[in-house]
Write a structure and sequence with these properties.
Protein Binding, DinI Protein, Chain A, two-stranded parallel ribbon, 5 helices, 2 strands, about 80% helix
């Protein structure tokens, strides 16, 4: 019985000491919050990556728009000519139109798949770069904890997004100038 009381007393003293030590260290902790969505929207790296994607996929997009216009013109022409066409000619023209529609849909799907794949590749690279910049800033500014997604509220006093964004802009300028 004495042994149980002694163990309980030791546990209570240890719990009190751990709680006090935790409270003292929590008072000295530097905590920051980063709005990752804002970094993805406003960083020059993100704008550059999205611009490069637009440039890369613009020719295919123009080609698809052109094919859509051609198909629409073909549909309009078929509607106008239906009354003067014979049954076999009408079936053939409708079959050609359906084939063209399928081909256009296939090309559009390929375009979207390719675009999404490249967008995800670029987003992955960008997220790794943003994470490195957040870690660099947090380490240099002596932060103990930096939170990102999942934060329900953060006051401006702990929001370090603007400072990280400045670091990203500086990094982008150095990279663009070849340093």
């Amino acid at each position: 019985m004495i042994r149980i009381i002694a163990i309980a007393a030791i546990l209570m003293l240890t719990a009190t000491w751990v709680t006090e030590a935790g409270a003292q260290s929590a008072e000295n902790m530097r905590i920051g919050v980063v709005n990752l969505a804002r970094l993805l929207d406003e960083s020059p790296q993100a704008r550059s990556a999205m611009g490069a994607l637009q440039e890369e996929f613009a020719p295919r997009q123009r080609e698809l728009v052109s094919k859509q216009t051609e198909l629409k013109d073909k549909q309009d022409q078929l509607q106008r000519d239906l009354e003067v066409m014979g049954p076999e000619e009408r079936r053939s023209a409708e079959r050609d139109l359906r084939n063209d529609e399928r081909e256009l849909a296939r090309r559009q799907n390929e375009y979207l798949e390719d675009l999404n794949l490249r967008r995800n590749e670029e987003l992955g690279k960008l997220q790794r770069e943003l994470l490195r910049e957040v870690q660099t800033y947090a380490s240099q500014a002596n932060f103990d904890l930096v939170l990102g997604d999942g934060v329900m509220f953060a006051s401006q006093a702990v929001d370090i997004t603007a400072q990280v964004l400045e670091g990203l802009e500086e990094s982008f300028r150095r990279q663009a100038s070849g340093q």
